[in-house]
Amino acid sequence: MAGNQQIFQNAMNNGNSAAWDQNWDLAKHYYITALEEFPNNPGALINLGLAIYELGDLEQALVVYRRSAAVAPEDPAPQEKMALIYEGLGRKNEAVRAAMKAAHVFQKVRPDEKSIDCWQRINDMH
């Protein structure tokens, strides 16, 4: 069943405005509303992950970023964020794996400085 595009777009716009204002609780609420309309929307998932991350719930942010990575495996952003979170949690092996996945995806989609940054982060973790 297709969701309501207008509700989704309004929720995303409101969530983005709240995020811009760094009102992460409100942003989270709106991104959840957007995902109720389109549960597998990668942009809404990534934005929800960021809101949850900014609220300090790293484990829940990981859950959302994992889901986002599964829905959009060609997007390196979720893997990159997961690497940062794992590193912050002291989970070095998982951080390296996520950073390597991000680097590989960055290399495929746009081989630029971001890919190099990921490889450097992996090197720094060793």
Individual helix count: 7
Structural class comes to mainly alpha
Q: Specify the helix fraction band.
A: over 70%
Largest sheet: none
Q: Based on Cα principal axes, name the global outline.
A: globular
SSE series: HHHHHHH
Number of strands: 0
Cα end-to-end separation: 47 Å
- Unreliable spans: none
Q: What is the gyration radius calculated from CA atoms?
A: 15 Å
Binned strand content: under 5%
**Mean pLDDT level:** 88
What does this structure look like?
The model has no long low-confidence stretch (mean pLDDT 88). It is built from 7 helices and no strands. The chain is an all-alpha fold and 126 residues long. The chain has helices at residues 5-20, 24-37, 42-54, 58-71, 77-88, 92-109, 113-125. It starts with a helix and ends with a helix. Helix 4 (58-71) packs antiparallel against helix 5 (77-88) and helix 5 runs antiparallel to helix 6. Helix content is 79%, strand content 0%. The longest helix has 18 residues, at 92-109. It is globular.
